[in-house]
Amino acid sequence: MKITQVRTFVIEGVGSGGDYHNVKGGHWLIDSPISTPMSGWEKYRASRTSWGINVLGSFCVEIEASDGTKGFATGFGGPPACWLVKQHFERFLLGADPRNTNSLFEQMYRGSMFYGRKGLPVAVISVIDLALWDLKGKIWKEPVYRLLGGNTRERLQFYCTGPEPLAAKQMGFIGAKVPLPYGPDEGFAGLRKNVEFLRRHRESVGPNFPLRVDCYMSLNVPYTIQIVKACEDLDIDWWEECLTPDDPDGFEQIKRAHPTVKFTTGEHEYSRYGFRKFIEGRNLDILQPDVMWVGGMTELQRISAMASAYDIPVVPHASGSYSYHFVISQPNSPFQEYLANSPDGKTVLPVFGDLFMNEPIPTKGYLDVSELDKPGFGLELNPAARLISGDRLLNPSPQKGLEPPKQQDGGSETTTQDAPAPAQKGGGGATSSVIGGA
Predict the structure, then answer these.
(1) What is the rounded distance in angstroms from the CA atom of residue 330 to the CA atom of residue 328?
(2) I want to staple 64 with a disulfide (CB 3.0 to 4.6 A). Which of 5, 98, 343, 371 is the partner?
């Protein structure tokens, strides 16, 4: 069994695929008050798209084996991700056995260490890895969770991240998480509005419903200590991503200041090496890697194994079915996040929009394991998916060059050397490519 083809795609338009934030204007994820690392500049506070949270967009990978079986996965990265796959990572895949996911991960990760280790290169490796796991499941005709060791329970419970915790409670979710609206640079007035905001939501859901706060790497140590103190009476279940993941010492300080309060982080950290110090420091109560960013299913298993030795739960960030297969198979992953994908956050929609025909979504806050019982990740590509082949971005059709300009040289007319024809933009006027058998 060998890999014979590696194909990449971007998705035309918004609201489809693995980039959570590439959505239409007015969506709560991008156009509501949310504290971010960019909140220090007033012009970047109104919308997260103003500073480019959706600049890359979704991308997809399809890997075909010599028997014709195909694995497919989505994530974020857009055209740059397609370029990395074609120009770098494809060399490790073509001709290799797709079932050797450990070896393939190591080759891609170590082969890109000189410019990677974190960020986009590892996110691209993640999507490739997920496509390989989808392919493995289809080859062996088993769902991915069985390849990971089988299910540890019959039902997967969810909490909901969104703007309306009361709506989450009414939909049957076991808890809710809200984004913190204001950051440290908005001063005492912003701090007061944060506390009032959280108090309103606590009053709306009542005292016996877990309420969590997402700070999106936007706070600092003194502010975190201050706001947690100011909200002591609100019984916040956990404070998430208060600091940048590059500050493990800062997490130690806030844990020392509030030893009985739960702190979590991880969605913006990469690889087992990035999580090692967090796990060994024992200053975090829950780890939240994103399987579409952290290194894929292969690396997520390693992080989870390390965390389990310290009895630290792993509750992955979003990622739809990719996370569901992982969580249902892990004894130290008690529940899963659902990131509200509807514009107002009050209804349950597929995480990946219209990319797939049959994406499972929680009903009344849970999902039965039987809904995952299909080979691979069990996701059937929508024939109408707005896919644009990465080849169109990397190898644009040539245009007729412009006539070379004429120059005057001492009264005599000369012609400059012919310039290369300008490249045609890859997405201009493109129609969707459709791939089969995903």
Answers:
(1) 6
(2) 5
Q: Which residue has the tokens 């035309």?
A: 12
Task: Kindly provide the residue ranges of all beta strands, DSSP E only, lying in 66-175, ordered along the sequence.
Answer: 70-76, 155-161
Residues 276-333 have pLDDT tens digits of 999 999 999 999 999 999 999 999 999 999 999 999 999 999 999 999 999 999 999 9
pLDDT in tens, 28-65: 999 999 999 999 999 999 999 999 999 999 999 999 99
Distance CA 334, CA 331 (A): 7
- pLDDT tens across 63-117, in order? 999 999 999 999 999 999 999 999 999 999 999 999 999 999 999 999 999 999 9
Return the H-helix or E-strand segment holding 300. Answer: helix 296-308
Per DSSP (E only), the strands in 32-126 are: 58-65, 70-76
Geometric angle at alpha carbon 155, from 154 and 160, rounded to 5°: 165
Q: Side by side, which strands form the sheet with 58-65?
A: 70-76, 58-65, 3-11, 387-389
CA dihedral 133, 381, 145, 296 (to 10 degrees): 40
Task: State the residue for tokens 């990719």.
Answer: 322
Instruction: Report the C-alpha dihedral over residues 213, 216, 222, 225, rounded to 10 degrees.
Output: 20
Q: Which residues pair with 339 in a beta bridge?
A: 161
Catalytic, out of 27, 268, 317, 325: 317
The DSSP 8-state label assigned to residue 307 in this structure reads: H
Q: How many CB atoms lie within 10 A of CB 23?
A: 21
CA distances from 147 to 135, 137, 267 (A): 12, 7, 24
What are the structure tokens assigned to 170, written together?
A: 């009414």
Per DSSP, the residues of 157-214 read EEEEESS-HHHHHHTT-S-EEEE----GGGHHHHHHHHHHHHHHHHHHH-TTS-EEEE
